Amino acid sequence: MTNPEKHSLIEDAQGVAYGATMAAFGIVILTHLGLVTGQTAGLAVLVSYATGWGFGPVFFAINLPFYVLAYLRMGPVFTAKTFVAVALLSALSLWLPTQVSFATLNPWVGAVLFGFLSGSALLALFRHGASLGGIGIVALMLQDRLGWRAGWVQLGFDAVLFAAAFAVIEARLVIISFLGALVVNLVVAINHRRDRYVAA
C-alpha cells in the first residue's frame, strides 16, 4: 500500500480536467455509434436519444438532485469537485463533436475504446476526490461504508438501465453497448482499490 499524501490544488485540477475530458471523448464515441452506457451518463444518453435533447444539458440536469446527497454524505469538497467535473463534461460533450470526427469506427472496437476511456476517466476522478455524480456517488459511498466495489455496484444499476435501452435502440446496439459498459466497470472494479491506492 502506498503512503498517501494530500493532492495539491494543481494535481486535483489536472485530475478532474483529465477525467472530465476523457469521459467527454468517450461520450463522443458512444453517441457517434448510437450506443448507450450505464450509470447517470447512460440515463442521460437514453433521454437524449428519446427526446432529441443534447446529452450535455440532460446530463447536467439529471445530476442536480445528487449533489444534496453528495454534500450530506461525502462533504463539500467532494461535492464541489464533482460539480466541476460534471459541468466540464457537459460542456465538452457539446464542443468536442465540432472538433473530432470519425471516417471509420467499428462499433465493437468503439465500445471497447469507450470503456477504456471512461474507466480511466473515472479512476482519475475517484483518486482526486470527485466523481461524475449520480450513481457514481452512491457507488463510492457503498464502497467506503460496506466495502462493496464501486464497479460492481455500478454494474448492477447498468443491468436495469440496459433492460430499458431495448425499448429505445435496436437490440444489436444494446448488446454492443453492454461490452463497453462491461469494460468500464471492470477497469474500475479491478483498479479502484483503497487497500492499494489511498488518496487524502
Automatic annotation (TrEMBL):
Primary residence: membrane
Keywords attached to this entry: Cell membrane, Membrane, Transmembrane, Transmembrane helix
Pfam families in UniProt: YitT_membrane
Transmembrane segments: 16-35, 41-66, 78-96, 108-126, 146-167, 173-190
Topology with respect to the bilayer: Multi-pass membrane protein
One Gene Ontology CC term in the entry: plasma membrane
Cell location: Cell membrane
InterPro entries, per database record: UPF0750_membrane, YitT
Keyword check for Cell membrane: yes
Name of this protein: YitT family protein
Organism the protein comes from: Tabrizicola piscis
